[in-house]
Amino acid sequence: SLKGKTAVITGSNSGIGLGIAWELARAGADVVLNSFTDREEDHALADEIARETGVYARYIKADMSKGDDCRALIESAGTCDILVNNAGIQHVAPIDEFPVDKWDAIIAINMNSAFHTTAAALPMMRKAGWGRVVNIASAHGLTASPYKAAYVAAKHGVVGMTKTVALETAQEPITCNAICPGYVLTPLVEAQIPNTMEKYDMGREEVIKQVMLERQPSKEFATVEQLGGTCVFLCSDAAAQITGTTISVDGGWTAL
Ligand code: NAD
Question: Which candidate, 139, 230, 126, 129, places its Cα nearest to that of 177?
Answer without folding.
Answer: 230
